[in-house]
């Protein structure tokens, strides 16, 4: 039997391209159209030799395969007996699963954090301070005549961003490349910068200085220097003129801005720049979110707690203090005594000091593939892959919700993240004697 499924949502980056065509034959994916190279690789290799198809519990230093019931029970006991458990990841799963994880964190009196705390956390903190003027990617496609990428290289990180939404897209009011101007601000001439009409090379860690100079130029204030952040003042004034004179401008920013020196203050300055520009023209700003549902993680956690990441329930109510309640800080202080990781690999990416503490506590991981964190885990629970073997809601980088489809059946016995978290939640409530309270 063969069928083609249209309008499939890609579950790789924050673009969440929803125009994929996937051909299924005899229960297997045999062809994918409209996918970028990264997306195509995911669809072609999701069932490779690194796939986990059986739950495992580590005993005497070795993994032993077990039933799902045994894995759920072991995970629930670890979490229920923990005094300060940590739940982390959640950017590579559905919004429905994230909501269950929040319930679980509250029932445990633990901390829930997502990958925002190690990527665009400063962006959200900046938004708390200043507010944000933003839009959908559809509006950018139809109307933008000036596009700026600051500290972002979408040719590699978001391969279809330029063709679907910005300079190479065909919008309702902007149909050709010559109707749009592309500016790239970065510390090096990236692949995206090589396509730009104007490339501004900012000195490393001096984004705040350049943004501040741009704000001065836009207000018509004199800059009494020859250059700022390695950029000649006449070039800064030229860029300011372009920004003021455009009809619809958009500033996309990536980790090159959020994680350079200044962090949230860089974002404060960028948001303030856009606010200033809106006194003269139409200008908007948007972070280039990496994981396909990191925006959904922020949305779902904020709905339920009031805060977008790093939420601590240990006092009996949601508390939010990035720098204290963020995962790296908790691990570095050695405070948590158990961890549940969902769709993430902190052992491969975190600082050594944080990983050292992870190796000292029982770790439970829910993930479809082997990674560095599975190696240090006590309980490994395999899962169906969202957008291929499981359906659910994800949020595109501009906050637009999209429905992922189930395309093929998962390996026998595998459940979705939402189903697994629901079972752990119910088991934990029984162990803590709270099931009647939540009925």
Observed structural traits:
single chain; 439 residues; alpha/beta; 9-stranded mixed sheet; 5-stranded parallel sheet; 18 helices; 21 strands
Task: Order the strands across the largest sheet as they lie in space.
Answer: 5-4-19-18-17-6-7-15-16
Summarize the biggest pleated sheet.
Answer: 9 strands, mixed
**Total number of strands:** 21
- Overall 3D form: globular
Secondary-structure content class? alpha/beta
What radius of gyration results from the CA coordinates?
Answer: 23 Å
Distance between the termini: 44 Å
How many helices does DSSP assign?
18
Indicate the low-confidence ranges by residue numbers.
none
Question: Helicity level, as a percent range?
Answer: 25-40%
Averaging pLDDT over every residue, what do you get? 96
Q: How large a portion of the residues is in β-strands, by DSSP E? A: 15-25%
Structure description:
The protein has 439 residues and is α/β, with parallel strands linked by helices. 36% of the residues lie in helices and 20% in strands. The protein has 18 helices and 21 strands. The protein has helices spanning 37-45, 68-81, 95-108, 121-130, 137-143, 154-157, 161-164, 207-218, 233-245, 255-258, 264-277, 294-305, 327-333, 346-349, 352-358, 372-375, 417-431, 435-438; strands at 2-8, 20-25, 28-33, 56-59, 62-65, 85-89, 111-112, 146-150, 181-186, 198-201, 227-228, 231-232, 249-253, 283-287, 311-312, 319-320, 338-342, 363-366, 379-381, 392-395, 401-404. Strands 5-4-19-18-17-6-7-15-16 form a 9-stranded mixed beta sheet, with helices on one face. It has a 5-stranded parallel beta sheet with strand order 10-9-8-13-14. Strand 2 and strand 3 (28-33) form a beta hairpin. The longest helix has 15 residues, at 417-431. The protein is globular.
């Amino acid at each position: 039997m063969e069928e083609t499924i249209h309008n499939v949502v890609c579950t790789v980056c924050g673009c969440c391209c929803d125009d994929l065509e996937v051909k299924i034959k005899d229960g297997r994916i045999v062809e994918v159209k409209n996918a970028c190279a990264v997306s195509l690789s995911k669809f072609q290799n999701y069932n490779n030799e690194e796939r986990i198809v059986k739950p495992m519990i580590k005993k005497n230093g070795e993994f032993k395969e077990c039933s799902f019931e045994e894995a759920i029970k072991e995970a629930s006991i670890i979490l229920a007996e923990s005094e300060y458990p940590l739940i982390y990841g959640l950017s590579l799963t559905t919004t429905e699963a994230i909501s269950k994880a929040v319930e679980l964190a509250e029932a445990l009196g633990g901390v829930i954090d997502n990958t925002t705390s190690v990527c665009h956390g400063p962006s959200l903190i900046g938004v708390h301070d200043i507010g944000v003027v933003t839009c959908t990617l559809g509006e950018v496609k139809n109307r933008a005549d000036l596009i700026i990428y600051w500290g972002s290289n979408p040719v590699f990180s978001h391969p279809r961003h330029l063709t679907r939404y910005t300079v190479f897209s065909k919008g309702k009011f902007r149909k050709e490349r010559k109707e749009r101007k592309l500016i790239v601000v970065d510390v090096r001439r990236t692949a995206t910068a090589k396509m730009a009409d104007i490339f501004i090379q900012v000195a490393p860690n001096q984004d705040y200085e350049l943004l501040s100079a741009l704000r001065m130029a836009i207000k018509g204030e004199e800059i009494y220097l020859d250059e700022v952040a390695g950029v000649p003042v006449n070039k800064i004034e030229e860029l300011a003129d372009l920004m003021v004179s455009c009809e619809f401008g958009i500033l996309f920013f990536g980790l090159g801005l959020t994680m350079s020196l200044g962090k949230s203050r860089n974002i404060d300055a960028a948001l303030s720049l856009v606010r200033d520009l809106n006194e003269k023209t139409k200008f908007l700003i948007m972070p280039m979110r990496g994981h396909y549902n990191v925006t959904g993680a922020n949305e779902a956690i904020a709905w339920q707690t009031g805060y977008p990441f790093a939420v601590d329930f240990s006092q009996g109510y949601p508390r939010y203090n990035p720098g204290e309640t963020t995962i790296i800080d908790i691990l570095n202080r050695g405070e948590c005594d158990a961890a549940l990781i969902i769709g993430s690999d902190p052992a491969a990416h975190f600082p050594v000091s944080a990983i050292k503490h992870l190796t000292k506590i029982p770790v439970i991981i829910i993930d479809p593939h082997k990674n560095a964190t599975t190696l240090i885990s006590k309980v490994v629970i395999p899962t169906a892959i969202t957008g291929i073997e499981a359906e659910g809601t994800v949020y595109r980088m501009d906050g637009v919700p999209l429905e992922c489809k189930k395309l093929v059946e998962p390996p026998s016995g595998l459940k979705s993240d939402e189903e697994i978290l629901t079972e752990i939640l119910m088991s934990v409530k029984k162990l803590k004697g709270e099931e009647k309270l939540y009925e």
